[in-house]
Protein 1
Amino acid sequence: MNLWNDPVNFIAHWLTSLFVGWGMAGWLASLIIQLIGVIVLILLMMLFDIFLVWVERKVVARFQDRLGPNRVGPFGLIQPFADIIKLLIKEDITPDGADKVVYNLAPILSLMSVLLLWAIVPLAPVIFGVDLNVGALYIIAAGSIGTLSIIMAAWSSNNKYALIGAFRQVAVLVSFEIPMIATMLIPTILAGSMGMNEIVQGQQTVWYVVLAPIAAIIFMIAAIAELGRSPFDLNEAESEIVAGFHIEYTGMKFGLFYAGELLHAFTFGGFWAILFLGGYHFFGLENLGPLVAAVILFAKAMFGYWVIMWIRYTVMRMRIDHMLAFNWKFLTPVAFVLLMLTALMNTLLRGTPSGVYILGMFLTNVLLGWIIVEILRGYSRSERQKTQNVAPAAATAHH
Amino acid sequence: MIPLSWFLILSAALFSIGLFGVLSRKNAVAILLGIELMLNAANINLVSFWRYGDVSQMAGQVFAIIVFAVAASEVAVGLALVISVYRRRNTVIADEIDLMKW
Amino acid sequence: MTAMQIFFLIVGLVILGSALMVVTTGNLIHAALWLIVTLFGVAVLFAILNASFLAVVQVVVYIGAIAILFIFAVMLTHKEMRDRGPQLNNSWWLNAIISLLTFGGLFWMLQSWNGFSKVAADFPSSYDAVGQLGNALISPDAFVLPFEVASVLLLAALVGAVYIAFNPHSGDSRK
């Protein structure tokens, strides 16, 4: 074991021997070292979050044909720090009639629900928080704490716009969780485990995006809905309900929601990479060392984050009934059919050579995708005919 | 190691608190909150009996999962009933819902 | 007293304290939020008992669905967001005595059982409890029938809840 091959355990061992050398009990030393590990991971993610503010602003600027922050520091890199100073020195307002404890707890819970997710992210084969054997469910569990924080923020603000935003967001979250769970079960079936480490290790030869491309797309859509980003940003639709659940928050409390949202988006980019894009695998490059593997995972997570931003700044906001109908009548049935097909094909093709297996899985997905497109074409044709038949009647009524 | 008795006493206490809530709350939603506490007490018992018995017999965990399903259905139907009553009678106080009472 | 026992006592105190708040606090939204604390404590207990799957499912089902549903129900059945007057009925002292007697009776019954102060064997580290649970739920000689009946129950509850809560007078004329 050396610093390059296993940096975390190397430092942990070094610290343990240091602490025990000071006369500390063994269990206390290991407890302190685990605490240090947690704090270091959280600090790294928060620092990375500051960088994400810059990335988000720069990317949205390019999508909207602007330059973005470019005054403070080289390429505007110091801009997020200026933002933080601005947020910190703003007046911290707690509205009259607000429920103070719940109001102040909500932003903390919101950020916590995101940071919790990083406990199970395998950054490299030897760098991970815990290897939970129920990792996929853990993602959903952390998401439900995020839902809770939104409801708490909205209710305690004592504001109708906030409450409307929270009602919308909860309706969306509760319904989009179902296709999300169903698509997370597909990598689970393929890897034979719900643990994130085994799912990543199962993608050594082929990434699951090849075996289950439709699942990857559905997971991305459900993730965007869970994040509450455009086209599903009904919870904070600024043209309708001003800012949704965080309307009353000022200063750094708003900053926590904002930071939580950005980190959440990046984290789901990361889970997309872990579940479907091979995690830290990149054509054997990850064997160079765990730090290289971590960099690969971050690059893939950044790609996922970029896809989320790309969709966010390109697609218009949907109406809530369209969105729920889209989930219940389209995404959920497709996800369940895909789940059953994947389980069936996985059982049928078990034991065949890997080429046949990969081709079989891929062709199943292509076939299912073709059937879906055909059904959608038939549906839109019938809808089009309906509107064309109605149009003359409406025209005569006007005359 | 924690003896089984601690879990059982905790769950008995939780059950009694839930019972108190069910008996003395006025609001129908709050009565359902008490029922949730009682179901959770039962779940603690089921899982601790699984852990302190033979861990290869999964009956305890399976029954805990069935309790989850029952709790979810109970809350869905119960709250639907409460909301329906609220629409018709404009109250959720259990004592005031007395049309069927003699 | 080991570290695990101290941890258990802290969690137990949190569970019982928040459960007491659930049944006594005047503000119903606060009661629902205290219920979440209780449920989270129970999830921690499941984790102590090596039932990791149940711990996560507890958070997903109870906190993510049931507690949120409670908060919604409280909001939908209040004209204002505040409660007035006492939330407990007049015979609360009698109910408290009944609850204490229940606890006493349960305690007396349990302590007369000879397995009461049993200590668990060490959890076998290679034992795959989640996999065993999955097998038990779908194997015909174990629990497949109760599992399927539970799913029928959930479907019946879904249909029933929609039917009861559906308001025919709220008038979406297109339907």
Protein 2
Amino acid sequence: MEVENVVYSHDQKTNHINQLSVEIELGKITTIIGPNGCGKSTLLGLLSNQYLPQKGTVKLRNQHLQQYKLKEIAKRIAIVHQENIAPGDLTIESLVSYGRLPHRTMFKTDKEKDYAVITWALKETNLLELKKERIDTLSGGQRQRVWIAMVLAQQTPYLFLDEPTTYLDLYYQYEILELIKHLNQSFGLTIVMVFHDINQAIRYSDEIITMKHGKVMKKGSPEIVITEELLQEIYEVDVLIKKETETGLYMIPIGI
Amino acid sequence: MWRKLISFIIVDMLLVIVMIYSAVTGSIQLSVLELIQGLFTGNEQVEIVKDLRFPRIIIGMMAGAALSVSGALLQAVVRNPLAEPGIIGISSGAAFFSVLMVFLFPTLFFYVPLFAFIGGSLAFLLVYSFSWKSGLDPLRMILIGVAVNAVFTGLLHVFSFTGSSMIAAIGDMTMSNLSMKKWSDVKIIVLYGSIGLFLSFFVYAWCNYLALNDKTAKSLGLNVNVARFVISVIAVLLASVATSIAGVFAFVGLIVPHVGRSLIGTDYKLLIPFSALMGALLILIADTLGRTIVSPIEAPASIIVALIGGPFLIFLLRKSDRIYGS
């Protein structure tokens, strides 16, 4: 996907995305990081057609995103939003089946295919045994896996996640991250995430996009992008960056 | 699963029992056998029952079904368990427009539901557009609905006080009155009501998707605005038709879907038919009680609905602290 010279504003006053151009590479895990209000989630929204750019273009396979029908986009791009709600008495299986919506039409439903895909999505997210459980009986980590299972059922080449680990404790955070990595490696899904944790971003991304004030500061592999100078510039926090054989690259904030 | 099936069976059975009880009870008492014989052979008393009781039974049931389904649909559209055609002014808007149009064009009686629909749509449009800016915030929406309802109810009272003979002819629409209903009324409510109910069965999946965030529904490929619009039109149609023939029933559209959710869950595939059946049952019981309990005085069905509905809702809310949502 390509984003070219996009300008976008939520309130017509300040530009939340300002003349931004960036390319999302196929088959890679790309993570967008930056301070609060830098436009990370907005960029994800533009990439997934939640927002329409006021200037510039977002292209998917060399075609403008707006030219696709909603269902055609939903067959190519799936997104797990940060805030999700569903009726508590819904079973996991039913919620995951919602992911088949873009593949259904009013009169045509391929039940066998749907069932196979839903089962696959449940299996990959390790929810197969729980499929008859109600949503309101689940833990936060399980619930996040359900939302991922739902978008997997869309069978898209692109998977976007907006802060997928924010409300989770450490174990569930890494469970979700390992799942995302597995989806990327086993099925070649192109993944774009928004994140706050820089160390997780380093560890799990092929590409990191750093943003500030609605612009891309730098894009590239973690080793290239994550430097003490850049993080100071973006977050205005002094950090130390270390590299050890057991841990790889990591970052520790030391003060402001 | 069993709970759902049993709920459906019980409501169906109760509906049949109350229907029969309602047909044979009142100022003219019949036995069930006499009624059935009379229907085939013709009998003076059964003829009277056919002309007086059958219409109100059918109208009561249709109105109950229509209002309940309307409430369930509106709750999906605005993702708010308090949305109800009575509370947010659709019913009073519909009632006011029917009265106005009958006053201005008395000959167009058969088209009253159409005018009611225009009035109901206007009321809903007002509520919807005024609460749009706040992102359809539930509390704000209800408050605006209360205001819109107050205005239309006020206008309706203005008409009642002018005491025109035309208005007297169609009765006081602020309170439902199912007596003196004719087969011509039955025809209208059955025709328009069944269209609305029939259409509502096609939108259950949309209602389910709308329970997710708008963002999520949209990224699944659902055109959220189109879905909202279509469901709203059906809901307003149902409420308007019911109001134009049976008068304003507050509460039905609120309480029936609520009870429905606690018995059979939030899935609209079941909730819509269940609400229709239970709404029909509720108004039928209310009307039957109203005309038999203190006979020969008739208490309007809407009052009985309020008397049964209020305490029952409180009982239900006490029993479970789950309201609706995640």
